[in-house]
Amino acid sequence: MKHKWIIGLVIGLTCGSAFAQTDYEEFIKQNQQEYTSFNETNKKEYDEFRKKINQEYADFLRNPWKQRKADPVIKRPKGDTIPPVIIKKEIEPAPKPVPQPFEEILPTPQPKPQPQPIKPIYEIPDPKPTPEPEPVKPLVATHDFEFYGTKATVRFDRENRISLSSVSELPIADAWVRMSGREYNNLIYDCLQLRRDHKLNDWAYLMMLKAMAESIQGVGTPEATLLMAYVYCQSGYKMRLAYDNGKLLMLYASDHLIYNITYYLIDGSKFYIFGGNRDGLNISNVKFPKEQSLSLIITEVPLLDMAEIKGSPHNSKYITDIHTEITANKNLLAFYDSYPASMYGNDQLTQWAMYANMPMPEHIKDQLYPMIRQAIQGLTQLEAANKILRFVQTGLVYGYDNQIWGYDRAFFPEETLYYPYSDCEDHSIILSRIIRDILGLKCALVLYPGHLATAIEITEGEPTGDYFLVNGRRFFIADGTITGCGAPIGRTMNKMNNNQARLIVL
What we know:
The chain has 13 helices and 22 strands. The chain has about 500 residues and is an alpha+beta fold. The protein has a six-stranded antiparallel β-sheet with strand order 1-11-6-7-10-9. It has a six-stranded mixed β-sheet with strand order 3-19-20-18-17-22, covered by helices on one side. A two-stranded parallel sheet has the order 2-21. Helix 1 runs antiparallel to helix 2, helix 2 packs antiparallel against helix 3 (about 170-180) and helix 10 (about 380-395) packs antiparallel against helix 13 (about 425-440). The longest helix is centred in the first third of the chain and has 41 residues, at about 20-60. The model is unreliable at about 1-20 (pLDDT under 50).
């Protein structure tokens, strides 16, 4: 039918002179009606398919949920075991390059397309206005809420809210069937649109759904958990429902190994509890077609409303033309604070790669990058890289995470510039981000036992000092934790053995 309409339209456009004007208009009208009818039939079939799938899902929910014991929590690795090296007198790098060949390096975690609904979610057209003498209420009910300080609106009539008589199989299944009706289509459609418009990664989207559900159903209620789980499931994500002592919980699957959160290994996938740790749960292991695990990779900066907050000043007595006292986005800081630390492929290096590969927010670029470009104007590639390195070494104040936060915590670059103290991980992450953005050079993270550094691929001139040879490419060590007056590219920090180092190219 669709092809018939397109072919007919082409014939009409190319041979229009053969038609009388009225015949041509009638031809177009007839074929447009056919296409509209085809489109509406398609939408109806999709709706009916989704409703059938959800009915089958709800039928499985009615079965008794199986009691399961949690698997051991993956402990967050301890950091800050190596103190920074303070150099009081300027030194030169080693007179001759000292290479460390690397045949294999750790691959960087690669993003996959975000989950999508099993079938397209079509919005329900707004009803046409009726000639009422006085409007009784708006034709389309909307609901406003906030996530990470960002205002959002979805179409939802609060009269369609769900209510559970108890947290048990039958009421939950009945509520699921009710939510699978067309009344919730626009809610799902709008949530997915918000995910696109605000460039939300999977974690930010889940947190948005939590805020949306709690604003509709109430904070901490089982109905809010069920609404969040329903929209999350319909958006294409892999999740399971569970309960314990009258509390409804949602478990989300992820291929990342997330630290300090209880998980349950179900059919080969790790399911993490959203919002708390529990050692035993009654879990409904009902699969939804084409479900996909949550990813913690961030490829775009979330577009959150700007809430300005002044950061700590960072100054270097050696590099006076680069200094920072940035205006950060409080809402982005809240997102960073909620982001769960994890590793991918059972390798800790991937954790820092995920922080380092997040793009620098535009409002930070606008404040910092023009100053850096001005400071390195006229310098060679090596001179420019050394100047940026020395600012990181001498302008950012070192602090131990375990003493400040009580645990090891990696920073996104905006956090490093906002907070007064940062450690070797943070210095390595922000150095690699600035070097890549400003100079366009490839960087790698270098992991020693208890310490993280950076390596930079210098492509011009004849740099000296220690470097790693990766597939014929030279990555020179650049350690942002050598404080005092700093040290140039090519100088390995004292007591670090490059034979024991491991690399991940960003």
